[in-house]
Predict the 3D structure of the following.
Amino acid sequence: AQSVAQPEDQVNVAEGNPLTVKCTYSVSGNPYLFWYVQYPNRGLQFLLKYITGDNLVKGSYGFEAEFNKSQTSFHLKKPSALVSDSALYFCAVTIRGGSYIPTFGRGTSLIVHP
Amino acid sequence: NAGVTQTPKFRVLKTGQSMTLLCAQDMNHEYMYWYRQDPGMGLRLIHYSVGEGTTAKGEVPDGYNVSRLKKQNFLLGLESAAPSQTSVYFCASSYSTVLAGDNEQFFGPGTRLTVL
């Protein structure tokens, strides 16, 4: 079984400040973890993924995420937020050697204020 | 490459009518998926396919049927539409690999369906 939790429905941050969007997961085995972004009236776009190796993963648009096995977390971060980062963010998980069907979190709305 | 395309972009149906949503991908992906997205519910998997001629049920398959006659196309059908099927529908595709599950999905732009 696998599940993903995004504990915050909405995150507000001022432009130029660092941002964090939280994700925790629960799997029976080793996870593959993904972040996607959805801009208004668009489909989801892949941002980054953790498969194995370095716990810090860098992705598109200056985003990065840190895999923390002990805390079962994969938080998305960016050092300096832009107004254009405002969007809906989804975390997803699959299991190595298990189901290849991803389980998605419910999404977190990121609002960056000018 | 066009990536993943969906037709139509918008549709309004009356209760009991039928329709087919078409998804096409030009990336030679083995796996294809249909999701629905509702406010506060995130993405829910309706049906998926791991290759041409194969389909399987996802989390919310009732009221929907699918077919994958060609590798590049994945059709989602509603035989008798109900207001509860008002939603935004997304198609996605991904590569298959030995490890499985390690490849990201590519999503289409969505179809906004309203059932009156």
